[in-house]
Amino acid sequence: MINAISGDSDFIKEMNNSKFTGFVHSTFNRTFNIKCLENGDLFTIACRKLDNGPNTLIINADNMKSQKIEVNDPVRVVENLLLIGEKLTISIDKVDKWESVLPVYPSNEEILKRNVIKMKEYLNVHGVGGGMKKNIITQNPFEIEVSKMLEKRTVLLLNELLNNRISTALPHAISLVGLGPGLTPSGDDFLTGLFTVFNMKNSVFYPYRSFCEEVLKKAKTLTNDISYMALKKAANGKVRESIISLLNSIVVENDQDLILSLNKLLNIGSSSGTDIAYGIVFGMESTIRAGGKVC
User: Fold this and answer.
1) Rounded distance, CA 230 to CA 243, Å?
2) In this structure, what are the phi and psi dihedrals at residue 89, rounded to the nearest 5 degrees?
3) How many of the other CB atoms lie within 10 Å of CB of 253?
4) Contact at 8 Å (CB) between 130 and 272?
5) How many whole angstroms from its chain centre is CA 166?
6) Do the Cβ atoms of 265 and 243 come closer than 8 Å?
7) Residue 32 burial (C-beta neighbours within 10 Å; 0-12, 13-18, 19+)
8) What is the pTM of this model?
9) Residue 40: its H or E element
10) What is the per-residue pLDDT for 139?
């Protein structure tokens, strides 16, 4: 038996209050995903080296290799125990509950503006290329074309958002879904960052956060299940702990915390963290230029 360390409060509630059943959807070195039969959502079991996130349970294990979990293994909950076939039993009896709570958009934007500039400068040097950031060293013709498409579509999206044309911005956002390399394509990661900013209370785009839901309606058939689930949660302001930590660092004046939290985000996936960070920068710049906070 392995103990759960922490987990998304909604996930824990789901397991405690319902007959949670499903099967293993996908497996990786540090995580595996469960498809819930009750609602069709994906839930993630992650090792202790990873951060908290929506629909995620962190367990006291270094990796998932030794558990020999396989796709289609049955999953069920019995009396505070999450059972993965006959291979793994996870106790959720003493798990710490975690909630995704975004900071409020700041009333004074001066610190935010300076931090966004610092973020861009840091990403230009330390960000991982191949997605939203061009990889000028190893790009092949396909990567070059994808980078051009990502850049063109984000420019079109920015232009519509800045002119408060939310309805005409929609197709440009949808055109990013599923675009780019990675298990979670770069366009999806970028939108995750953008959706997060849309869901910050008091920002000029907060009243238009239904925009995220409209993009999501089209996303189901345009990307894979894992990436869609991240977009679905982000559309409602539910994102990973590392993203929230970065947002908290952006709205205060502490360079050390800003760089530390940014580095943690950049360590997600291959280019995923970088792509999410660019989505946050894009969202912040758009918000500032469109008028900042709601008066």
Assistant:
1) 12
2) -120, 125
3) 12
4) no
5) 22
6) yes
7) buried
8) 0.95
9) none
10) 66
